[in-house]
Each structure stands twice: as C-alpha cells, then as structure tokens.
Amino acid sequence: MILSRIILGFLALGPMTGYDLKRHFDSSAAYFWSADKAQIYRTLSSLVADGLAETEVVPGDGAPDRILHRITSAGQDALSAWLDSPLDRQSERDPFLARLFFAGDDRQRVHQLVTSRRGALADFVAELEQIRSRIPEVTRTQDPAAWLRVQTLEHGIASGQHELSWLETLLEDVP
Question: Longest C-alpha distance within the chain, in Å?
C-alpha cells in the first residue's frame, strides 16, 4: 500500500509515465524508498483499475506512444487519507544488520562485512550529495512542498553520514 501512495504522491506533482516515475524514484526517493520497474508498472495498473489514477496515450513522434498517468480526485482523496492517517511503526529489514548480528567471532568475516557496507554506503551518500548539489536552494516560505522534499534528502544524507561514522567505529574495534 505504501508504494501505491508514494506513486500517487508523485502523480500529484504532475502527470508521469512509468519511465518518469522510475526516474523520480531513482533520483529523488531512493534515500527513503526503492521500487523496481516491474513494481511501479504493476502498481500503476492497480491504481488505474481502482480509479485512483487515469491514463492518456500520448502519440510518439517517430517513437512509441507514451502512456501518461494522472491522479484522479479519488486518488487525491486516497493520498490525503494516507497522509493524515496515524504512522505505523515499520519493521526494519536490513540484511547487513542481520548478517552482522550473526557474524559471531569470525573477525575476518566481520571486517569484510563492515568494509563492504562502508564502501557501498559511501557511494550512496556521495550520490545523494550529488543530487543535493543540483537542487536550487529553496526556503520554507518560498515553496513549502519543495522545501520538505529537500529536507527528506537532507535526512538521507545525514543518516548515511551517521552510519558511516558508526561503521568506522566498528572497524576500529574489530582487530
């Protein structure tokens, strides 16, 4: 359900194709939610079937036709209801932490696991920082919605930096 509400949120920003949505996930939501192409298209189909989104075929000029998705008023209502609903605690599902938990006394395994995570996370934080560098400064009073989207990106960067610091401490303590 959360994926469908996130897609409705993107569609509330403006009409999009499935390709556009995938691009938005990869460039603006990846720090808090991921979705592959198949999940996005499957969810779009469900949203259309449920009347929460509608489609328009845009003829391709020498290219395949594009299917543009728009949020409907029922979709706006569903998005609003989700935004206003109480927050449920989401279970953490982190394969790295599960492996670390069971790594035991094998120091080499722990070192490799932590080093691998650190490298991947450093790359991800650098990617988020690149995205941030391309976004114009916006204040809360200029555009509250855009400002909040930037703040979620800032959260992703800060969380990644915090975890990188924690990983460095782990590496210092693992001989």
Answer: 62
Residue 48, CB half-sphere, CA atoms under 13 Å: how many?
Answer: 15
pLDDT digits (tens, 9 = 90+) for 36-93: 999 999 999 999 999 999 999 999 888 889 999 999 999 999 999 999 999 888 777 7
Cα separation, 60 vs 67, in Å, equals 10
Q: Are 75 and 81 in contact (CB under 8 A)?
A: no
Cα-based distances in Å from 164 to 39, 46, 170: 30, 38, 10
User: Which residues pair with residue 56 across a beta bridge?
Assistant: 68
Q: Residue 149's beta-bridge partner residues? A: none
Element (H, E) at 57: strand 53-58
Q: Do residues 39 and 7 lie in contact, with contact meaning Cβ atoms separated by under 8 Å?
A: no
Q: In whole angstroms, how far apart are CA 167 and each of 9, 63, 111, 125?
A: 34, 48, 10, 14
